[in-house]
Amino acid sequence: MSDVSPCAGQCGNSEFWNSDGDVCVPCATCKQYPKTPSCNTCKSTDESSDVWKLAAITSFSVLAVVLVGAALIIGVMVHRRKSNKRPLREPIEETAGPLYQA
């Protein structure tokens, strides 16, 4: 006779089989009681959630940098276009003063 119950295969992805109580136990129990037997059979959900958080933070940071950069570039282009539309001033008259005697 084997020690594993036929019900052990019916546990969900976030559960493990507890042979003492003959029940499926949620892996969340392992956070509260880390020394529980068979906790090592649980797939760590913390690592995957951390990866998603890191990916989300990184992508939003890149998006923010791109948007700020685009806004700055557009602002500089608009400023240059407006400054080029100013009427031309009178040309500076060059005079040969005492500093420029030949």
UniProtKB/TrEMBL annotation:
InterPro entries from the UniProt entry: TNFR_12 (IPR022316)
TM regions (residue ranges): 54-78
The UniProt record lists the keyword Kinase: no
GO BP terms, alphabetized: positive regulation of extrinsic apoptotic signaling pathway
GO CC aspect terms: plasma membrane
Coiled-coil stretches noted in the UniProt entry, renumbered to this chain: none
Superkingdom of the organism of origin: Eukaryota
Keywords tagged on the record: Membrane, Receptor, Transmembrane, Transmembrane helix
Positions of the UniProt region annotated as Disordered: 80-102
Protein name: Tumor necrosis factor receptor superfamily member 12A
Lineage of source species: Eukaryota, Metazoa, Chordata, Craniata, Vertebrata
